Description:
It contains eight helices and no strands.
Amino acid sequence: MKNSSDFARDILSTKNHKDLSPCDHFIPYLVQKYISGASPEHCNLINTILNNKLSLWSDEQEIYDFLKCFIPKKNSAYFTYFGKKKKEKETKVEVERISSALEISQKELYELLDIFPELEESMVESKEKLLKSR
């Protein structure tokens, strides 16, 4: 059982044609995206040629065969993985605790802090605030 990244590596590195099996997860959009991450030349090639053709095709085997013939081969099948998590910006606020108290996701809290930076100042617990509340 192969996934889209396996197919992209196979298309980029080998010339042998294979038939897709029913248990394979060949998603043309993802394969196209992974191949685009291999190099700027591959990205331009994918964008100029395939964007118009892939919208008309529905047979996955035909798409795979076309990509296998069409895409230039490389020695190493390295491509940029696009699903990396972004590092959240550093804040003075305890994001995990506040997001659970407000019953919102941490992502939503980061977005609120980006939109309204003055919220961060009001959410920071200083020693003076703690002493006054007691």
